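Problem statement: downstream parser choked on a complex file, so we are re-checking the raw output for the zinc ion run. The parser issue turned out to be on our end (a line-ending mismatch), but while we're here, posting the original submission so the record is complete.
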Amino acid sequence: MLKHEIIPVTPFEQNCTLFWCSETNQAAVVDPGGDIEKIKAAIARNGVTLEKILITHAHIDHAGATKALADHFSVEIEGPHKGDQFWIDGIEDQKQRFGGYFSYATKFVPTRFLEQGDTVGFGNIVMEVYFCPGHTPGHVIFFHRDSKIAQVGDVLFSGSIGRTDFPRGDHGTLIRSIRENLFPLGDDVRFIPGHGPMSTFGQERRSNPHVSDRALGLS
Ligand SMILES: [Zn+2]
Ligand SMILES: [Zn+2]
């Protein structure tokens, strides 16, 4: 069974998530943006063994501590999609822009970039990968079909959607990612967004002011 604990990290309260397999206690951390001691504490507290790091996209609050965590636990890094290479290269610039807090942040080299249709595994858990560009050009999300839970990074939030005013962001692409890749997974899918509270795809399809059926003139 898939278990999870959300660990808000950085001044952006980014929802880094520890996922683990309850049968093997093998775990994956999604989006270790910072506060590495909090992440290590969650791993220890739950008595799990970190097997890999998964990255939705390479913004500093999601990926800044990737290398430090990967080096500490000697684990592999899967994701994001190769379209985010320029954001990985730009982690140093992002660090300058946000000043002191992110001084720990460093570039990292993914063991494996991800594509639509890939899967990622830890213990007995397999999560499906969906390519959801728009917020960044290499954004992916992770979906566990058995427990109907998704980690969607900055694609979709409860009542909002990701910003698209960054370099190579695109609003139309983001809307298509949500409508064509996320919503078909099912109204009853619960998702962990990159920031803020969880919601369901059904709730957002009904009421999200940016991407609901009504907002797009579909009902
Ligand atoms: Zn982002
Ligand atoms: Zn974010």
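For whoever reads this later: The domain at 2-207 is CATH 3.60.15.10 (Metallo-beta-lactamase; Chain A).
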